[in-house]
Design brief:
The complex is a heterodimer of chains A (246) and B (168).
Chain A (H helix, E strand, L loop, with lengths): L10 H21 L8 H29 L3 H6 L10 H4 L5 H23 L4 H29 L3 H14 L20 H14 L22 H15 L6
Helix pairs in contact in A: 1-2, 2-6, 5-6, 5-7, 5-8
Chain B lengths: L2 H11 L12 H4 L2 E7 L2 E6 L8 H15 L6 E4 L12 H10 L1 E2 L33 E5 L7 E6 L5 E5 L3
Parallel strand pairs in B: 2-3, 4-7
Antiparallel strand pairs in B: 1-2, 5-6, 6-7
């Protein structure tokens, strides 16, 4: 078996990993729909978005790896669970189609704001990656929001499902805006994100959930029980056939 | 390497086709940002279209092979992310070729610039003219087509489906 790599607690690297791992893990979840989506067009759409997210993750992991001397593949395939810094939202099992599009709406709205913020940041490489990704995230957001509105405005069953997805996902959104030493500015995106989510949910005639006390911490390495299973799938080939390439 | 070689290199790049949309060249697609002379030969600066575009690596290889075949190698390719590629860089000739190939060329991408339009997510799909019969009576079937860069439309006049190259 290929040995794991360990990372030191470097806040700058972790900040990039939080974004890169969120893209990687959400890309992995969306790719699970390949061959399983309700209709062919959506199968293709979800796979295309997964491809965008994995492309963004590749750029970010390459960038993050410069600090510790690792390449994108080592970071994607050879870390242990605690060293992944994605948002918990990304690792939750894919659920039904309503759950998937509601998560995409929540995450794409946040990512689009985060990317826009980074385009004006001091890190030129990060700004360049963000300049490309922000445009892609807007298409993802548009696609997801379209479906959130359609499902909420559809049948009794589709509305029940989209409503359940919102209730399930909402408690995990607090983590996105929880500032700490790695990302002291995380809270600044809360107001613009909430404004957009408010408009999206109003259009869908869904009630904006209230914030509770629950806090998730995958971005600090404390994952849900689902992460280990996801990593087993993601890492299996590299662990079983060390250094294997296409 | 001389200025004449750089000219020849640009002409050669006009023969390298995009593997996903083999109707137009990488030059017409607007992803070749520069061709310059370095101490180690020619350097071609390419800008990727989408972050996850699987064609990027194929294009890189095709560019190097074409330059080699034209006697201009060994050349090097450098990927440059900023400024991000936009469909506005597709040349007029490239747009015409897309249309003739059956893909509706992209509208202007300017409205996607940061802050230009505050509410984008509830925007209705664009009105796109059918590349076959030119009717404006078309509808979007799916926001994502066979590749991330295209969406799927249907013409209500001639009943044919077609792809639309998304402005980005």
């Amino acid at each position: 078996m290929q040995a794991s790599i360990a990372l030191k607690d470097d806040p700058a690297q972790q900040a990039v990993l939080r974004l890169g791992d969120t893209c990687l893990v959400l890309g992995q979840r969306l790719a699970e729909w390949c061959g399983h989506a309700p209709v062919l067009e959506e199968d293709i759409a979800l796979a295309n978005m997964a491809l965008d997210l994995i492309g963004q993750a590749r750029a970010l992991l390459s960038h993050a790896g410069r600090v510790s001397g690792h390449d994108e593949d080592q970071l994607a395939f050879l870390r242990d669970e605690r060293d992944y810094r994605n948002m918990t939202l990304a690792e939750l099992p894919r659920g039904d189609f309503a759950f998937t599009v509601m998560r995409n709406a929540i995450v794409a709205t946040w990512l689009q704001l985060r990317w826009a913020q980074l385009t004006a940041g001091e890190d030129a490489e990060l700004a360049a990656i963000a300049g490309k990704a922000v445009k892609e995230a807007r298409y993802h957001q548009q696609h997801a929001v379209d479906w959130v509105v359609r499902l909420a405005d559809g049948t009794e069953e589709s509305r029940r499902r989209i409503d359940a997805a919102l209730a399930h996902l909402w408690p995990y959104t607090a983590e996105l805006f929880d500032s700490d030493a790695v990302d002291p500015q995380a809270h600044t995106l809360k107001a613009p994100w909430l404004a957009q989510m408010g408009e999206i949910l109003a259009e869908a005639t869904l009630a904006l959930p209230r914030e509770g006390g629950f806090r998730s911490h995958a971005k600090r390495g404390m994952h849900t029980e689902h992460m280990g299973h996801l990593l087993a799938t993601l890492q299996h080939l590299q662990r079983a056939y060390p250094g294997g390439v296409w | 390497m001389t200025a004449a070689d750089v000219e020849r290199a640009w002409a050669t790049l006009d023969t390298v086709l995009d593997p996903e949309v083999p109707a137009l060249s990488v030059r017409e697609l607007g992803i070749v940002r520069d061709v310059r002379v370095t101490d180690d030969g020619l350097e071609v600066v390419l800008t990727p279209t989408y972050s996850g575009c699987p064609a990027t690596e194929v294009i890189e290889r095709s560019v190097l092979e074409a330059l080699d075949a034209a006697g201009l190698g060994p050349a090097q390719v450098r990927l440059q992310r900023a400024p991000a590629w936009t469909t506005d860089w597709i040349s007029a000739e490239g747009r015409r070729k897309l249309h003739d190939y059956g893909i509706a060329p992209p509208g202007p991408a300017l409205s996607w610039a940061a802050g230009a339009q505050p509410m984008r997510f509830m925007r209705r799909p664009e009105r796109v003219a059918c590349p076959r019969c030119a009717s404006a009576d078309t509808e979007q079937l799916s926001a994502f087509g066979a590749t991330a860069c295209k969406s799927l439309y249907r013409c209500r006049a001639c009943r044919e489906p077609f792809e639309y190259f998304k402005p980005i």
